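Protocol step 6 of 9: fold each sequence in the batch and record its structure tokens directly after the sequence line. For illustration, a two-sequence batch is reproduced in full.

Sequence one:
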Amino acid sequence: MEIKRASINASALRVTVGAAVPRSVWHELHEADPCALPTQAPAWLDCLVAAGGYQDASRLYELADGRVALLPLVRRSYPTGGSAILQSMPKSWGYGGLITPDGVTADLVNTVLDDLSTTSALRVRIRPNPLHLAAWAEAAAGRAGVTAVPSRAHVLNLDGGFERVWRSRFKPRTRTDIHRAENDGITVDTDTTGRLVPVFYDLLIRSFDRWAAQQHEPVRLARLRGRRRDPIDKFRTIAEQLGTRCQISVAWVEDRPAAAVIVLRGGANAHYTRGAMDDSLAIRTKANPLLHKVAIEAACNSGCRAYHMGESGTSAGLARFKGRFGAQPYDYCEYWIERFPVYRADTAIKSCVKKMIGFHDA
């Protein structure tokens, strides 16, 4: 792929696209940005490409004032061709957005939005790092063709190390539950080779069934949606591509798996990206708090600055659970740049279907 050079605005010098982006530069930017997430690393994009259906469309911005920033981006490829959909990142693939050692500012986001608005893509979808919410909101405000989609995430600050997090940020009840799980003999097995992927996936299938009941959704439909969004080969690919940066932990009650989490590490941050459980075991044994304690302690010991706990949406239950570890809510937005109002039409259709089947978000 050739380097694309374009004059975006007065402050932009050059844009390099896709495979032409030097991996060495990407690695350097990712390592130098204290807010960079594992899902913004080049290895994560390799996971999307290896899982099938995506092509590298990342954009490296070199500005006239010396700043350099990178937007991890994938292009959805279709056998029939047609207009592309660009995403950073696709749904169920974590956070995208900008990485730069100079900090994400509103003027930088403005430059990027100007550039993305000139592409031939039918739609561009950006899910930025929630910690950069202010810069993206300021830059996107009042822009024609840009739809802001409200979302909420929770992030735990790890400053001060694990002892400080344990004593000052974990709630007393959470510490009590963890001690109970440890005293009851709940064990945690952690692996970075992919050995535990089948165990995790079996628990995930059980979780599909539980979510179906909570959401008043037919079980067969929930399993179909879940397997399509998260096939087992996706997790095998992630474990293979990321190696030691993908940590799968399983809590065992005697010889039975009760709960599991997948935590990614990269740059200066950790990201709890998936969780699953057998609720008949996990709830009464307090397996989930113990799992997160182990993951948070490992993140602290590896020098991470934050433990991202992912999307919470409007779920009060998820917000309470994450808050028990001291994670703070961040109300941010995804951004859709569209030629046609696809987002609103898609939302209307989904709302209609949900009403027909009695679905409600848990």
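Sequence two, same batch, same settings:
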Amino acid sequence: MREHPNVIAVQDALDAAGACTADGAASQVLILDEGAHTAAAAAAALCIEVGQIANSLIFDADGEPLLVLTSGAHRVDTARVAASLGVGKLRRATPEFVREHTGQAIGGVAPLGHPKPVRTLVDKVLEQYRDVWAAGGVPQAVFPITYAELVRITGGTPADVA
């Protein structure tokens, strides 16, 4: 699985950005024994709080992709996000829309490693954790990173999204 093109793209992007964990170690994609299609499954596999999972959710914002990195303990308030961005219509993207803009499938969308940058919001609640874990391009892949690093490497905007 480590040779999957999406995993390679994510690790390459992490390496190029110099992304690191709270201990200062380089962020490395870890391959889980089984796919973690939900925040709860990923948290259980990693023995961490579900809130430490940075869910990568792609939305269709007036036809443009919007990536919202939200705590696994939250649901995105689409009306609030749309209003804060001045977007007329914000809805969950179709699997085809997600793949077109990220090159990845729902359930394994990483916050980086996409064909081109995607506008990104990062849930401020994630800041309370020493490290957060994000998907690595496929459902079995995850990586640790600090909140500040996640914001930096994605070019994301900290936001209240729940």
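Proceed to step 7 once all outputs are recorded. Observation for sequence two: The mean pLDDT is 94.
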